From TrEMBL, chain A:
Cofactor note: Binds 1 [2Fe-2S] cluster.
Annotated transmembrane regions: none
InterPro entries cross-referenced by the UniProt entry: NuoE-like, NuoE_dom, NuoE_N, Thioredoxin-like_sf
Protein name stated in the entry: NADH-quinone oxidoreductase subunit NuoE
Automatic annotation (TrEMBL), chain B:
Known role: NDH-1 shuttles electrons from NADH, via FMN and iron-sulfur (Fe-S) centers, to quinones in the respiratory chain.
UniProt name for this protein: NADH-quinone oxidoreductase subunit F
InterPro entries, per the entry: NADH-UbQ_OxRdtase_51kDa_CS (IPR001949), NADH-UbQ_OxRdtase_suF (IPR011537), Nuo51_FMN-bd (IPR011538), Nuo51_FMN-bd_sf (IPR037225), Nuop51_4Fe4S-bd (IPR019575), Nuop51_4Fe4S-bd_sf (IPR037207)
Listed Pfam families: Complex1_51K, NADH_4Fe-4S
Gene Ontology molecular function, alphabetical: 4 iron, 4 sulfur cluster binding; FMN binding; metal ion binding; NAD binding; NADH dehydrogenase (ubiquinone) activity; oxidoreductase activity; quinone binding
EC number: 7.1.1.-
Keywords: 4Fe-4S, Flavoprotein, FMN, Iron, Iron-sulfur, Metal-binding, NAD, Oxidoreductase, Quinone, Translocase
Cofactor section: FMN; [4Fe-4S] cluster
Residue ranges of every copy of the NADH-ubiquinone oxidoreductase 51kDa subunit iron-sulphur binding domain listed in the record: 340-385
Gene: nuoF
Catalytic reactions on record: a quinone + NADH + 5 H(+)(in) = a quinol + NAD(+) + 4 H(+)(out)
Automatic annotation (TrEMBL), chain C:
Entry cofactors: [4Fe-4S] cluster; [2Fe-2S] cluster
Lineage of origin: Bacteria, Pseudomonadati, Bacteroidota, Cytophagia, Cytophagales
Locations listed in the record: Membrane
Stretches assigned to the 4Fe-4S His(Cys)3-ligated-type domain: 97-136
One Pfam family per UniProt: Fer4_Nqo3
Residue ranges of the TM segments: none
Species: Spirosoma validum
Ranges for domain 2Fe-2S ferredoxin-type: 7-96
GO molecular function: 2 iron, 2 sulfur cluster binding; 4 iron, 4 sulfur cluster binding; metal ion binding; oxidoreductase activity
Keywords: 2Fe-2S, 4Fe-4S, Iron, Iron-sulfur, Membrane, Metal-binding, NAD, Translocase
Family: Belongs to the complex I 75 kDa subunit family.
Name of the protein in its database record: (2Fe-2S)-binding protein
A single cellular component GO annotation: membrane
Keyword NAD tagged: yes
């Protein structure tokens, strides 16, 4: 049984390949599977999402079965296994943020973007996702775009951020 | 001035850099440990300090260390649990972001004490920017000879690896964390064997929380006895409390264990009181999984004494009238909060985060969430409250890992202390589902 | 070269003492005593390394940890993974807390499991059906939507009906341990987990058919047998052939003269004794392909034994006698000539009915 997808399509850029090899070398001999989560982050950083072709590429790189990658990528919520917009807004929906008005701000955000949870704006700029606690409860409401945390959100602040990201 | 063991220098400008940290006395504990102490002597000091695991379980750290199996020729690992994901908890985030070298210093000391030559810091993937901060700190420490081969000429080698998670609360459970670190799904392992015998790559492993590891620098510098002199009874030392919710000053505070809950909420030094113009309704003292308490029980014990911020005092009265210190995720609710909605919210969290491996948790968390959702949205039945209690009981204690308990406790405790509020939702659905509607019946507001 | 026999340890389960080798699990010790005290197991599968601990059906209470340390264990433990200690006292069916927990487990497993036993091929040899029969309730307290999935063909021989899956992971362990490349696994998380291949792939391997045998429910079924019959109408016979790939030791399932299904042989705990290859399972369905050894031993409590009792060994219950006394043929005018129904041999009825009418001795 071989992997059907012929995936010369996805490959790490030279600097990411170097990074990937550096990551793989971190673990003891024979334990290279430990590099799976970091490599998937690297893949998603490059491709914008965690594509099947990309997962197969990572599987070959680590010499593991593709299913082992799919199992992992679908378990963890950070990996976007479907294509997403340019900016993925990951909005915290958990209790402490809600106490600080998180639900009202979220309604505003949805209205502002004109989309519901899980959807992408027609211009492909924004994808909206709900996530659980981001460990910033004292600074809620909170959302995250890539690595950046946006905290103490209000309707006005949300508008500013969207304007800024839309530029 | 209250003693600060972890955060004394946290506001020093540039403390995230090696040079500033070093100027504040940083890495002297590494020097002392590696040059003048044996690994066993360090373990002894940590035992004497009586520091209890700061991730939530509160298991004595020194005892955990002494359980580590030491077979010949097998590597041992130290893994730092920085997968902080418990709702209400953001102390490790704060500590790592602001003073990364404190954790690195603790990691070097702890690894040396345990005889580990490769140690991991498993950070939740969402905190990628913190991972970059830690990696920079590690590179600095390595450049100065505090990491890598032959540290400070002692012959001791140590590599530190920062590992990102992928977004899964369950990886805060230590065996799920190890699975994840091995590149697998975060399914907790059945125990025994415990990680101390078979952990990472089937080798003996210690998993400790960020805050726990960070304390070792101070313990080495000042001695275990000095640490144990801080705090109250078996709750030694200080604790980082992440305070959120309806208080005037949310944030992370380092307190000496034993401070009265009342002082912690109302003193300007800490939370600064309940949001101005509002009343105190309920408290989740140690992260979303610990039982919620109504205001009166949060502040006083059943015997009328003041409740203190300590492991023992918070759990006084068992689950009937007490709760737990847990991870120190301190969430305060004022009278505008709907307990039913919040319980549903927490329940949704555990449903979403269940790994799905064992049946009571996989099926039970979803069931509880759906019933709570029904009640919150005005479709509850009379038998639903008893149903929730029964389902929570059938999950509790019957699962592979503590997530089942963590999902059951918030539901059971909310019903225990706020049953009337649930009943009101069922009896008066049209009223209860009005925007902003909150139960106004009899309750102990402070 | 004398074998050094390890000192046996003594464990008491539901008041019955048994001696086993050190390292034996509570569940295996209980099985040694017999089916009456053996805890149910939905995920544990002795031939598969690493299985167990997930379904929690086998929870027991340890009332005394060992002779040395007779304290009880604080929580119920998974008997499939907990090793016995000398002097351990275990409560299984005798402890109400255990029964309550098991009732809970059945309820949890059935929340999302369809009530489609009447059309499910696994009915009659289904672990979950048996478990529900012992510990389930007639009604459900669950009124929310259940998760459902489309049926999926994974290869020409196997159908996956994920709606029925209880996520025991047995098929994943099987693929890991007896095939060289696993292509299916557990995807997703929590109650949204599912068995799948992610990208549509066939499970194509000489031993892939074994996932059907290990499945405790009807989630993985044999497409060459689907809807062909009910297991209690068939007659299992042990047989073997000289197979270049596997041991060739199988059970043939007869309906009349026809072999309608081939499976691996299973022990009394429904566990495969030796895994068989796909050629034996799917391609060799003629009696002439096989050397017949004799009837498969089937537990009398199994429905597979139904209609196969010897009239002189079984005493009909009062209910059966009553039913037989009130038996009336149904007047049915529908035309069944176009349906391909194999008739039951009439002598079966003849054997059962008269004896059922006999007065109790």
């Amino acid at each position: 049984m071989t992997t059907e997808t012929n995936n010369s399509a996805v490959e790490f850029t030279p600097d990411r390949l170097e990074k990937a090899n550096e990551i793989i070398a971190r673990y003891p001999e024979g334990k290279q599977k430990s590099a799976l989560l970091p490599l998937l982050h690297l893949l998603q950083e490059q491709e914008g999402w965690t594509s099947p072709e990309g997962m197969d590429y990572v599987a070959r790189m680590l010499d593991i079965q593709p299913i082992e990658v799919y199992e992992v990528a679908t378990f963890y919520t950070m990996y976007h296994i479907n294509p997403v917009g340019k900016h993925v807004i990951e909005y915290c929906r958990t209790g402490p943020c809600c106490l600080m008005g998180g639900e009202e701000v979220y309604s505003h955000l949805k209205q502002r973007l004109g989309i519901e949870t899980g959807q992408t704006t027609v211009d492909g700029q924004f994808t909206l996702k709900e996530v659980e606690c981001l460990a910033a409860c004292g600074m809620g409401p909170v959302f995250q775009v890539r690595e950046k945390y946006y905290m103490h959100l209000t309707n006005e602040r949300v508008d500013e951020i969207i304007d800024e990201l839309s530029k | 001035m209250a003693i600060k063991i972890l955060t004394e220098h946290i506001n020093v400008p540039g403390i995230e850099s090696f040079d500033v940290y070093r100027k504040q006395g940083g890495y002297t504990a590494v020097e002392k440990a590696i040059k003048t102490m044996t690994p066993d002597a360090i373990v002894e000091e940590v035992k004497k300090a009586g520091v209890r695991g700061r991730g939530g379980a509160g298991f004595p750290m020194g005892m955990k260390w002494s359980f580590l199996a030491k077979p010949e020729g097998v590597p041992r690992y130290l893994v730092c649990n920085a997968d902080e994901s418990e709702p209400g908890t953001f102390k490790d985030h704060y500590l790592m972001k602001n003073i990364p070298h404190l954790l690195i210093e603790g990691m070097i000391i702890s690894s040396f004490a345990l005889g580990a030559n490769k140690s991991f810091i498993y950070v939740r993937g969402e905190l990628m920017y913190v991972i970059h901060i830690l990696e920079k700190a590690i590179a600095e420490a390595k450049a100065k000879g505090f990491l890598g081969k032959n540290i400070l000429g002692s012959g001791y080698d140590l590599e530190l690896v920062v590992q990102p998670g992928g977004g899964a609360y369950i990886c805060g459970e230590e065996t799920a964390l190890l699975e994840s670190l091995e590149g697998k799904r975060g399914n907790p392992r059945n125990k025994p064997p415990f990680p101390a015998v078979k952990g990472l790559y089937q080798s003996p492993t210690v998993v400790n929380n960020v805050e726990s590891i960070a304390t070792t620098a101070w313990i080495v510098n000042n001695g275990g006895d000095a640490y144990a002199a801080v705090g109250i009874g078996r709750s030694t030392g200080t604790k980082l409390i992440s305070a959120s919710g309806h208080i005037n000053k949310p944030g992370v505070y380092e307190i000496e264990l034993g401070v009265p809950v009342e002082d912690f909420i109302y003193a300007d030094e800490w939370c600064g009181g309940i949001r101005t113009g509002h009343k105190f309704k309920a408290l989740v003292a140690g992260g979303s999984s610990v039982p919620i308490l109504p205001a009166n029980l949060a502040l006083t014990l059943a015997n009328g004494e003041k409740r203190l911020m300590s492991y023992e005092s918070l759990s006084d009265g068992g689950f009937a009238t007490g709760t737990m210190l847990g991870s120190g995720g301190f969430i305060v609710f004022d009278e505008t909060s709907c307990i039913v909605r919040n319980t549903w919210n927490f329940s949704r969290f555990y449903h979403h985060e269940s790994c799905g491996q064992c049946s009571p948790c996989r099926e039970g968390t979803g069931w509880m969430e759906k019933v709570l959702h029904r009640i919150e949205y005005g479709h509850g039945h009379q038998q639903d409250i008893d149903l929730l209690v029964d389902v929570s009981k059938k999950i509790e204690g019957n699962t592979i890992c503590p997530l089942g308990d963590a999902a059951a406790w918030p539901v059971a405790s909310a019903i225990r202390h706020f049953r009337d509020e649930f009943q009101w939702h069922i009896d008066h659905p049209s009223e209860a589902t009005q925007p902003g509607a909150v139960y106004k019946g009899e309750m102990a507001l402070v | 070269m004398e074998d050094v026999k390890p000192q046996l340890v003594k464990v008491t389960i539901d008041g019955i003492e048994v001696e086993v080798e050190p390292g034996t699990t509570i569940l295996q010790a209980a099985r040694k005593i017999g089916p009456a005290v053996a805890p149910p197991a939905m995920c544990y599968y002795q031939p598969l390394k690493g299985s167990g601990g997930k379904c929690r059906a086998c929870l027991v209470r340890v009332a005394a940890g060992s002779a040395k340390d007779p304290r009880p264990m604080p929580k119920l433990v998974a008997s499939c993974l907990t090793a016995v200690q000398d002097g351990m006292v275990v409560e299984n069916e005798t402890n109400p807390q255990v029964i309550d927990a098991r009732n809970g487990i059945v309820e949890f497993l059935l929340l999302n499991h369809p009530l489609d036993c009447p059309v499910c091929d696994q009915a009659g040899e289904c672990d979950l059906q048996n478990f529900a029969f012992d510990h389930g309730k007639v009604t459900t307290r669950y009124e929310e939507d259940r998760r459902t999935f489309e049926k999926q063909d994974i290869g020409p021989y196997i159908q996956l009906h994920m709606t029925r899956c209880i996520l025991c992971y047995r098929c994943v362990f099987t693929a890991d341990q007896i095939t060289n490349k696993r292509v299916h696994g557990v995807l997703g998380r929590g109650d949204a987990s599912e068995i799948g291949t992610y990208i549509e792939k066939a499970i194509d391997n000489d031993f892939s058919g074994n996932v059907i045998d290990v499945c405790p429910v009807g989630a993985l079924t044999d497409k060459t047998y689907r809807f062909k019959n009910r297991v209690w109408f068939t007659k299992p016979v042990d047989a073997h052939r000289d197979c270049p790939t596997c041991s060739g030791k199988v059970t043939l399932w007869y309906r009349g003269e026809d072999v309608i299904r081939v499976t691996a042989r299973k022990n009394e705990w429904n566990e495969v004794e030796e895994f068989i290859c796909n050629t034996c399972r799917f391609d060799k369905k003629k009696t002439s392909d096989w050397t017949i050894e004799g009837p498969t031993k089937v537990s009398r409590s199994s429905v597979i034994s139904a209609n196969k009792y010897r009239a002189d060994t079984i005493k009909p219950s009062f209910g059966q006698r009553l039913a037989a006394a009130e038996y009336k043929p149904i007047h049915d005018e529908r035309d069944t000539s176009q349906l391909d129904i194999q008739q039951l041999p009439p002598e079966r009825f003849a054997k059962v009915l008269p004896s059922a009418m006999e007065p109790e001795p």
